[in-house]
């Protein structure tokens, strides 16, 4: 009753002595001023009103009031949307009736300067179906790896779709039907990945080294591998762990006088990733029992699976540690060439990030160190999602339709709170600067990627942009408009993260082929960041411009169209990546065991082979591309000393080079592609590969004692001329999924 009396005076405690009084009528005001309406107080008819005079405010009584309420805001938004629609309609009608002037834009590709026409408005193609049907996916490929009984879909930006286009082109040129076949037949019963062990393995037993139950490390051995994490993944991929907190957490797990440790999913996946990386730096003969006679890419699989089992119990109530585990699992699977499993792991990572609310900017009430860690976690998830789906050509799992958290800071203060004690590289550069610049690079690339692949080219069912010259040219115009953003990104990189050149006239991130200079006394983590930043730049640029390599009408070579200029830029980035990778492997150990460098090189060499086939004319770019292919073979030979799949890549490229040279020789002899003068000049350029044509018997590329697998004959009298392309398809998906599963575990059939 007391609360009622205080809230409503006169209610619940009436005064019988008080006589009722007639309520005075409130003076009406025509319109309150803006300040009074905002503060929701009474206003009078004076101008300025008494409230504004008293508070010193600006008294405004405009005829068009601002939106101070929710309903007024909705009305204002609707009005603005209507105006925007009207303006867009007028703009569209003008673009259709006006011929328009086309300005000239200089594309500073840091290789030869390209003059690119760019329209004043976004180019459009007249719709063929009324523009009412939703856009369809185009250019994808259903691909069945030789070690899987099921097919998978990969989009047009993937290397697999490009390789399929190259394969179809060669089919036509060789005048034969090529039917892909399984070179390693596999049955569904062999894939026991999703089965759980019935007996024979206790995932929760403390690790005590090699045993009949598996290959686990002792805490002392784990310490050896964990030290590689901070110099590799931590500084060069995703800074998602607090080093000081992780080491403190690890110490808290030790029991039995430090001889054993308690189970931890986070520790297990970090150990697995470090084993995969470090063992891949060793020669095959030195990798020892830890790989169990398998490839180094599946080293640490016991720790990986134990961590997966522990993560199962965290699915309903995930934590930051759960997110870190999922993200590191995706990195481990990607390194082992399990790309579909990586894609699935990334889906779990993205959903966990949303569950934890990382998509919202952290509140200011949190400590600064925690705010920055949450931002780094979100943007690491975004980065991995962008990288994986641009590589596989699949839709992004993180939509950018909503605002996202602020980018993580790389300031000196934030670096000091990160838990790591790396010395700043410069006044404006810390160990966190690499991560920030890598994210901004992918933001530029993803914007261009989205603009290109989300454009409605008005294709008919089954068509691709390579079937429509006008669509291909429109795509070239779209990509050309984003090149200036790439150039601006290159200029924004601090000097401490740039690789210097031996040629003083050469610039960092250029495609001129100048050799780089490695600073002798710079710490390894900084050298790795410099190398990876430029290496990643060339890799994503080559992928972005690769759709411009067209195998249609290849005989009509003009070298003047925008599409072919961008195709040349694609090849220039692939050549620059190959030269950089070769020099790094020859002069440093920075890429030893770094699987991403191998896959980027494989991507580059297949791109160059396609470029040579699409544009075989007498020009400097084709000659440089051939030289880079020969250099890539040496790169694969270097990688092949450490893991078997790289050795197989070298042999596949050699075989493809022999096939392409044979085809080119036949066409020159028949005069199919070139006139007499061109055919005579072709002799001055070296062939793709100087070795003898390789027979099938010499191409048993997986016949390695370390890999434990080989390619048997399919029982036919002869093999297809393009069996090598089947192998090329399988390089990224070469591991069998059951290689991750321990053999001595009894699994129900």
UniProtKB/TrEMBL annotation:
<feature type="domain" description="Zn(2)-C6 fungal-type">
    <location>
        <begin position="32"/>
        <end position="61"/>
    </location>
</feature>
<feature type="compositionally biased region" description="Low complexity">
    <location>
        <begin position="94"/>
        <end position="109"/>
    </location>
</feature>
<dbReference type="Pfam" id="PF00172">
    <property type="entry name" value="Zn_clus"/>
</dbReference>
<keyword id="KW-0479">Metal-binding</keyword>
<keyword id="KW-0804">Transcription</keyword>
<keyword id="KW-0539">Nucleus</keyword>
<feature type="region of interest" description="Disordered">
    <location>
        <begin position="88"/>
        <end position="132"/>
    </location>
</feature>
<dbReference type="InterPro" id="IPR001138">
    <property type="entry name" value="Zn2Cys6_DnaBD"/>
</dbReference>
<dbReference type="Pfam" id="PF04082">
    <property type="entry name" value="Fungal_trans"/>
</dbReference>
<keyword id="KW-0238">DNA-binding</keyword>
<protein>
    <submittedName>
        <fullName>Zn(II)2Cys6 transcription factor</fullName>
    </submittedName>
</protein>
<feature type="region of interest" description="Disordered">
    <location>
        <begin position="1"/>
        <end position="25"/>
    </location>
</feature>
<dbReference type="InterPro" id="IPR036864">
    <property type="entry name" value="Zn2-C6_fun-type_DNA-bd_sf"/>
</dbReference>
<dbReference type="InterPro" id="IPR051127">
    <property type="entry name" value="Fungal_SecMet_Regulators"/>
</dbReference>
<keyword id="KW-0805">Transcription regulation</keyword>
<dbReference type="InterPro" id="IPR007219">
    <property type="entry name" value="XnlR_reg_dom"/>
</dbReference>
